Amino acid sequence: MKLAYWMYAGPAHIGTLRIASSFKNVHAIMHAPIGDDYFNVMRSMLSRERDFTPVTTSVVDRNVLARGSQEKVVDNIIRKDAEEHPDLIVLTPTCTSSILQEDLHNFVERAQLEAKGDVMLADVNHYRYNELQAADRTLDQIVQYYIEKARKRGELAEGKTAKPSVNIIGTTTLGFHNNHDCTELKRLMADLGIEVNTLIPEGASVKDLKKMSQAWFNLVPYRELGLTTARYLEEQFGTPYIDITPMGVVETARCIRKIQQVINAQGAEVDYENFINEQTLHVSQAAWFSRSIDCQNLTGKKAVVFGDNTHAAAITKILAREMGIHVVWAGTYCKYDADWFREQVSEYCDEVLISEDHGEIGDAIARVEPSAIFGTQMERHVGKRLDIPCGVIAAPIHVQNFPIGYKPFMGYEGTNQITDLIYNSFTLGMEDHLLEIFGGHDTKEVITRGISADSDLNWTKDGQAELNKIPGFVRGKVKRNTEKFARDRGFKEINAEVLYAAKEAVGA
Amino acid sequence: MTVAQQPEALSFECETGNYHTFCPISCVAWLYQKIEDSFFLVIGTKTCGYFLQNAMGVMIFAEPRYAMAELEEGDISAQLSDYEELKRLCLQIKRDRNPSVIVWIGTCTTEIIKTDLEGLAPKLESEIGIPIVVARANGLDYAFTQGEDTVLAAMANRCPDKAPVAETEKIERNAIAKLLNFGKKKEDVAQDESEYVDHPPLVLFGSLPDPVVTQLTLELKRQGIKVSGWLPAKRFTELPVLEEGYYVAGVNPFLSRTATTLMRRRKCKLIGAPFPIGPDGTRAWIEKICSVFGITPKGLDEREAQIWAGLEDYVKLIRGKSVFFMGDNLLEVSQARFLIRCGMTVHEIGIPYMDKRYQAAELALLEKTCQEMNSPLPRIVEKPDNYNQLQRIYELKPDLVITGMAHANPLEARGINTKWSVEFTFAQIHGFTNARDMLELVTRPLRRNNNLKDLGWDKLVREEAKI
Questions:
Q1: Which of B70, B93, B144 sits opposite A4 (nearest CB)?
Q2: Cα(A335)–Cα(A74) distance, integer angstroms
Q3: How many CB atoms lie within 10 A of CB A445?
């Protein structure tokens, strides 16, 4: 047992559900007790989905505990198949159902006999993998399933596309700025004259998977999600993959050069150097920003970075290499892939921190007192407590990290967005600091001629106690309204009863 | 007074139980705030932790007095000793927080692997010297607010039986208090007692925010009724005395286990009343308590009328409109009854679990309200099926759907107004004073619509999206 308050990566089934609900017309059925379908709430609230999240539960209750699921799971699959005609139903075990050790495989096979769509069991061990690992595995499982199926039926697409093309693998629902990254990557590919063959899983249909073999190469922009699939495709079709995240000016250029190398090896004969040059010097503002005096002021300022592998590594490199900021430590919560992270960032920071314990991260921030933090929502709150500004760069995230405006982290527009994020974090910190030195905005005592400024009314002890229970941000208003109410009615004293009578009368 | 004898009775149905609601462990979110010296330890998996972390939102950053005891593979396969593991964690909690009580929340996983929490607790309690209360608030058996019910039922067993030692101590303390008050508020103390009618002790149960506790207590005080205590109190160390023969009354519709425990284990007498939600409910609640104590209620007519007058601007917005409760927090029947009194029609009351005995008075009032308002009797659907409900919603086109967050945005995108049901659990909706707050929530989508009505942006999904 482990005492835990907060976790950076969710449980395995969340990963599976993220993959399933990213695809179009794929339905997930969780084998879970009531209340475990919280994923639907997150998807509906955080990413403000207009459509119902295609996830239902085959409820595990006392009866299931006593007698096993029996027909229940099979019936639920068949029912969903008839109601919504999905292409695929993914039966998703949860941590609860995995200890029941029911033969879910058998249920899937039986349901498959009657269901028109495909039925599959997500094969993920809930006590060994987290959300990210599970998502990576589930995506691979679905791709393999449809490639094998197409191969058996002889429907597998033959050969490569005429023009250079790419499969972009790994953008999902509830991923950090994934939808914006996705748009930016499509734009980048268009600029490079590369067709997007498939883009999975977000918005894809499982029917498209059989044509994945036609791409010239696979692009895996996120370290955590899609590598297993890319490796499988390499092994099956010899398709090379590129796993350089195009985040930051230098890394974007490196990614594009790698693309050039990979497609030229297949006879494309492209030269992207001019494109890179033009974008770097004139389209993206990030390179120019590095030269500007704003950025000069950031030289040597201390920062710490924490997040998932992809974002923490990329941001660390941007801070150190492109802006001359001193990254005291950089860390990740992707413990299972820590070696990769170390190798990526060691030369750009003093220290590498691998941990899933937010307490340890918080202490490490307090210890170094950086001028700015780049982390998850948890680090943002640590920052609040310590009065250090924080830019959020990775999940776990809240609804404000699903902006409506166009805010990619990848590609050339991404470099602009990241520059703003970093610069704004630091200047905010400077402003606060200056204000403190000069003692606030205005040191003269503010005299308001509020209605309660010179009160002739007497608050009794219980009245005052009740008033104090009212949240601070409305207390002033409630106090004024109550006093007005008391004055209008000629009360000399305000006790709890008068306070609530005022509330009833004026809705204070 | 049985419902079945009526010619036109309420209809009760039961569907598949495939509905969305919060896991009952969510009760720690409000209970740790209510019981200030408690610490809640949820013994479960990452799934439970992830739910709490996301459902509690910003509260999680405020160093909450709750934590997960996250089970690992070794715990599931019994390679580790439950007792030793729990002891280690509880000692850590004692060292870091020093609470007056640790509440263990049993989850689905502890049920399935049959961890004997009730057996381990007394042993560990005597070893570490902190009371340990066990509540099995799991998703196998309960929905959302029923979590509070399991915790309060467990707490009910911890309420003191007015031991004689405590009594003398109390008198002494009172004596000191009197001494300190001497010359200052002597007459206040005497006056305090004379304000109350002589009646047997009354203890109320249900966790409410402190301001609402004060309001309801004052409301009863106006009738000369003294509230001897609340379950739960602000602190675990202040749990009310419960002697055999005390009267108890519930303030929330989801507290049936607590009510049963109070009656059977503590030999208290339950006052079965409608719940104090809405001015009509509050009045009926007070009247019922008065009638049990043989008190004639004073001034309730005017008070209720005055509250209704203050609500008129909101009632005007919803009168004649229809509402559909998908059901997830067990407050549905009381809310529906209040809204029917406001002049709304209720198509369906979805509810996770319906205790017809504990809610009997509320159901009777619902029926009476329908007759008086000339409104059709709604169907009550226990363990609803959300998919079927959505089909009914498309067909009925209600003016308002009260539902969970999983369905709210998709329904709004289809031009159906929704109010997110969880807000009613956390908002202050009890008593005369807060009737307006409840309507504030109910009317919000309708007021929003009035603001946006000329824009023509009702349906925001593409046609092909709906099959």
A1: B70
A2: 37
A3: 5
The rounded distance, in Å, linking the Cα atoms of B340 and B342 is 5
In the 8-state DSSP scheme, what is residue A398? -
Report the largest interatomic distance among the alpha carbons of chain B, rounded to a whole angstrom.
80
- What number of other Cβ atoms are within 10 A of residue B448's Cβ? 12
* CB of A288 less than 8 A from some CB of B: no
Per CB-CB distance under 8 Å, the chain B contacts of A37 are 20, 406
Q: Which helix (H) or strand (E) holds B349?
A: strand B345-351
> Do the Cβ atoms of B406 and A37 come within 8 Å?
yes
Judge: B93–A3 Cβ closer than 8 Å, yes or no: yes
Query: Which run of H or E residues covers position B41?
Result: strand B38-44
* Pairwise CB contact (< 8 Å): B80 & A1: yes
**Is-cis flag, bond preceding A221, omega within 30?**
no
pTM of the entire structure?
Answer: 0.89
Q: How many CB atoms lie within 10 A of CB A437?
A: 7
Q: What is the pLDDT of residues A109-124, one digit of tens each?
A: 999 999 999 999 999 8
Nearest to B458 by CA among B413, B398, B406: B413
CB of B413 within 8 A of CB of B335? no
Query: What does the angle CA B439 – CA B444 – CA B447 come to, to the nearest 5 degrees?
Result: 115
Cis status, amide bond into A396, omega within 30 of 0: yes
Q: What is the pLDDT of residues B431-457, one digit of tens each?
A: 999 999 999 999 999 998 887 877 777
Residue B156, class by beta-carbon neighbours within 10 Å (0-12 exposed, 13-18 middle, 19+ buried)?
buried
- ipTM of predicted complex: 0.88
- A450: alpha, beta or left? (left if phi > 0; alpha if psi -120 to 50): beta
| pLDDT at B42 (0 to 100) | 96
Facing residue for A7 by CB, picked from B46, B61, B467:
B46
